[in-house]
Amino acid sequence: MKRRLIWWGTFLGGLYFFLEFVLPAEFGGDFDDHTVTAPAVVYDGTKFRMWYAGYPEDRRSYIGLATSADGQHWTKETPRGLIRTSTFNRGDYYGAEAPCVLYQRGIYHMWYVGWDFKERVHQLCYAQSRDGYRWEKCPLNPVVTVSKEPGKWDHSAIEGASVIWADGAFHMWYVGVLGSVGQVGYAVSDDGANWANRQLEPVLHNGENGSWDHEGITAISVLRQGDRYRMWYLGSTKEQLDPGKEDQSEIVRVGYAESKDGYTWEKHPGNPVFSLSYPVQGTGLVALQPVVESVGGSTEVVDEGRYVLVKLPKGKQTLLTVGSQEQAPDPGPGCVSRVAAWVGDFLFASRGFVAQFVNPPLRNPETLCVVKVGEEYKLWFSSAELGSFKKRAGKRIAVATSKDGLHWQTEPKGHAPRVVLDLGRPSRSTYLTKAQSTIGDWWNYAAAFAVGMGLINLSTMHGANVRRRKKGWGNSLAFFVSVILMFAVTLWYKQWEKHPQFITYSFNALFWYVYNPLGSTMFSLLACYLASASYRAMRIRNFESGLLMVSALIIMLGQVPTGAWFTRNAPSYLQIPTLAKWILYVGGNAAVRAVGFGSFVGGLAISLRIWLGLERGAFFDAKV
Amino acid sequence: MEHATVTVLVLIVIFSSAILYKILSAHAGKEIFIRKIPGIAALDEAMGRATEMGRPIVFSPGLGGVGQVQLAAIAVMAYLAKSAARFNTRILVPISDPTLYPVAAEVLRETYHSEGNPELYDPEDVRFFSGDQSVFAAATCGMIERERAAANFMFGSYGFESLLLAETGQRCGCIQVAATVDMFQVPFFICTCDYVMIGEELYAASAYLSRNPTYLGSLVAQDMGKALIMLMIIIGVVATGLAVHYGAKVDFNWFTALLGK
Lengths: 624, 261
Prior knowledge:
The complex is a heterodimer of chains A (624) and B (261).
Chain A: H1 2-22, E1 35-43, E2 48-55, E3 62-68, E4 74-76, E5 96-104, E6 107-115, E7 122-129, E8 135-137, E9 157-166, E10 169-178, E11 181-189, E12 197-198, E13 216-225, E14 228-239, E15 249-259, E16 265-267, E17 278-279, E18 286-287, E19 292-293, E20 299-302, E21 307-311, E22 317-321, E23 341-343, E24 346-348, E25 365-373, E26 376-383, E27 396-402, E28 408-410, E29 419-421, H2 433-468, H3 473-495, H4 501-537, H5 543-558, H6 561-566, H7 576-611
Antiparallel strand pairs in A: 1-2, 2-3, 3-4, 5-6, 6-7, 7-8, 9-10, 10-11, 11-12, 13-14, 14-15, 15-16, 17-18, 19-20, 20-21, 21-22, 23-24, 25-26, 26-27, 27-28, 27-29
Helix pairs in contact in A: 2-3, 3-4, 5-7
Chain B: H1 6-27, H2 38-53, E1 57-62, H3 68-87, E2 91-95, H4 101-114, E3 126-128, H5 133-147, E4 151-157, H6 161-171, E5 175-180, H7 186-192, E6 195-198, H8 201-210, H9 213-246, H10 254-260
Helix pairs in contact in B: 1-9, 2-3, 3-4, 3-8, 5-6, 8-9
């Protein structure tokens, strides 16, 4: 009976996991169920088309298409994605994202950020389409690559572009990144694929120290109007929002710049022109935009959201102008950074607190696209903090409008911007999906009991050593002392916010200055053991070991400049760094994958045997 | 967890059907040949050596909790335990994951019991050390040196501690047999161990040792699965080569597109 129960339990559990995870995601979900970002909008006078990047959880990004009649209400056209990553590396092996689309001479041109396999960086790829649906990737991809020179401003990545057609050529402004700092570069092309005419230096720099765009430029959108070029760009900086903590938060805002020739840009003196979050000068606090809901449920919104009514402790309240330079009064201790829970657009403070002037989740725009529609400007942007948290977290797309391109507003006023393009259907396939987290929790409970059993085993063993005064019993005593000490200190440190300073010092001392260095010491032993093992084992006894030694030599030399110097006069395909890369990424990779195939099939076989109760476990003559 | 694609789902169905078919045909009495795997044949040799020297053996199932790799390792441990019970040789089992600890302890106890030598079982022979790799490595190395093990078996998943354990065993003069599916640790084992089993040879060990028809049948099916994968690779290479050569004139990308779905 017991065996039958175990068999049925194993079978049903396996069946659940099979249905939950082995069935393709397409059975129940869309390619963009996790993130929707990077809008690229084209308006042909009657219809809006938006190409955007969608991310499924744990998988590579694709580019999809949505259409709209008014720019507010969108219909997704491609639940499976439109531009998918290339099976073989053509510059977008790991992901296709951040598209920029231009309709010119009857052809849709798209430049998108592809994550390259070989170089492991973001670079720009190019594709064409006649109808916006079927795209043909350029065989020269990636068409705009990172600079090969280390330390150059665009050496780390190319993170996006904006392209217009002017004067018989394609003009591209792109975001080049070094480290984490982005600046804007400029290039011109006749055909959209060959961008040899590329400026060596950026045409728009990040801001100076302390400015709102000091940390770099992350995205751009360029329009040409008459004789001037207009650029909207995202600039980021880090600010300390909570005076009580030293942490700095990244804040991203929209800036504006103009140019007459595309090379020389002038930033607008009123920058930033748009922000989803308004840091208030003098306090480091971030205002909401702009709803505060007081305890009791009533909503206090004054003057359509331009003002925020803030209730302070002890019955005080203040009227704060959002976005202005007015200085908020010092709210007093205990008021700042009282984090409350976000539910939808409203902020709920917990009972017993007056609605606090809190740090809400920052609504940082991540990408943007500006289009002029008639006399109005529309700015589509993505952000991770749109939409209700009752639903799924993830980046979504919203829109802001402006009459002049400098003063922007979102709808509805007084609330978080409305999402115009939401996440796709979640990629789940069975009704048991909701039970997944519960099952995961129960697994954790069981694992916790197992940890307890392990501790009991350790205690029993070391206790016996101490009791019998076995050789080395002092080490066993040290085990008890260290376990009890670490447990007590960590519990006190983590469980209660307020604790004596010596507890903080003790925790830091035990964890950062004892435990971690000991682990690093064990890791560093690898260096010695590697040397001794190699010396002992690496002897050229036959052809295979000789081949191994030559390969190892090539790979080691390929990692240092000396290897490149040795073969500097050889053809590029015979140079040591090239050979080293080939051995590692082609030859070695093939061998690893070949073994991986075998392991996969073997794992599948043993899993099937366990699931169907055919696995005899450790008893080779009795069924489990 | 990443969901399968349609192609992977079809492949899983094909592989599973082949495995079940071969298991049934093995049970029907069909003779199945398995080539000799040196590492597995060395298990008895190592056990014999440890018995002669009167020293214990160390069997480490590596990192990770209860999973396919660890269960395959525990199956080999049970085989060694049967031999050990006959020859009164101790087996020391260092455990990294607490969820594996009760499984290993129970298997060892039951195996000794079934061989008629229950008094050989000592609960302290199965030792949970820590889930932390560094701690596990330090404790296991210490155990190998203190107990002066004669043989060191490392079956399972390993991280950087593979070299630490293997080199310690090498210094102590242990005969060492390793088996892992982690390709990045295989070179370390090859440098330091006497016998190494790579990838699915770990899974084949239980079939090789027991000669059970179920295991033998699934082993043959695994080979069939690998042959199918090889065939797909060859077709894909040819299709891609033709696609590159003929360009847009003829569409050979259907195969690569199929794999990508």
